[in-house]
Amino acid sequence: MSTDLFDPLLPARVPVRGSDALFPVHRIYCVGRNFAEHAREMGADVPAARGTPVFFLKPPDAVVTDGVVPFPPGTSELHHEVELVVAIGRDAPPGLLGRHEAQALVFGYGVGLDLTRRDLQAAAKAKGLPWDTGKAFDDSAPVSALVPATEVGDLAGRGLSLTVNRALRQSGRLADLIWDVPEILRELSALYALRAGDLVFMGTPAGVGPLRIGDTFVASLEGVAELHGRIAPARRVR
After folding, report:
1. Half-sphere exposure of 100 (CA within 13 A, CB side)
2. Domain containing residue 214: CATH number
3. SS3 41
4. Do 132 and 30 contact (CB within 8 A), yes or no?
5. pLDDT tens by residue, 20-64
6. Is residue 211 part of a domain?
7. CA distance 55 to 75
């Protein structure tokens, strides 16, 4: 009989508002440049035709649910990006999804931060290299409790916002997403086998900026969810 060499780590779990249930995380997909103004502030061209979404991944254990984010190693430029988070509650059928099929995968919604080591990302971009080190690091995906989609209704009229030390840093409307939730899930389904437990960070509005040790933040998905947090000192290396 085969046995594990060591005890496997349990998956990260996100609480569900109003329930004792937990959402076990399978993968974290992220969408880049899904708000035109943010794409412009990052120096990207925004053509009239939408083209193809930009995707990248974070490790599933990057999730933070208590809001306490240790300042990460290897960077002097930790940046915030507030985002709608979509939680997938069932496996996708094989092949491209139709709009109704895509929406039917959604279990619920939350709000989160796509934290970014901007200096590492910029250095990689300048050399034409992958920028995983800028995005896919420990504690880089703080997320609120999830709210079932049946309690949320239409998203288009809702807003996203982030305050840092009580000052507004980011604000945007979900109606301004370049690709909405069903469109993003359809595009992802052409590239990956979507599974129950996947989280999708949907992209950030303009206004990204730095976070420093001691900063407090409140991320809000209007009328749905809030995430209160702070940037803690870096973890000690043993």
Report:
1. 0
2. 3.90.850.10
3. helix
4. no
5. 999 999 999 999 989 877 556 555 565 555 678 999 999 999 999
6. yes
7. 23
Residue % of the chain over a pLDDT of 90:
84
Residue 214: give the domain boundaries: 15-232
Q: Is 140 helix (H, G, I), strand (E, B) or coil?
A: coil
Count of C-beta atoms within a 10 Å radius of residue 51: 11
53 located within any domain: yes
Exposed e or buried b per residue across 223-236, where buried means at least 16 C-beta atoms within 10 angstroms of its C-beta: ebbebebebeeeee
Of 93, 90, 31, give the one whose Cα is nearest residue 58.
31
How many domains are contained in the chain? 1
Instruction: Give a yes or no: residue 111 inside a domain.
Output: yes
CB neighbour class for 13 (10 Å; exposed up to 12, middle 13-18, buried from 19): middle
Residue linked to tokens 């290897």: 74
Contacts 24+ apart (CB under 8 A), 15-24: 15/65, 15/145, 15/146, 16/108, 16/145, 16/146, 16/147, 16/148, 17/145, 17/146, 17/147, 17/148, 17/225, 23/87, 23/107, 23/108, 23/146, 23/197, 24/197
* Digit-coded pLDDT (tens) for 146-203: 999 999 988 988 999 999 999 999 999 999 999 999 999 999 999 999 999 999 999 9
What's the pLDDT band for 234 if we cut at 50, 70, 90?
A: very high
Residue 31 lies in a domain: yes
H helix count then E strand count, the chain: 5, 18
Under a CB-based contact definition with an 8 Å cutoff, are residues 78 and 71 in contact? yes
The pTM of this model reads: 0.93
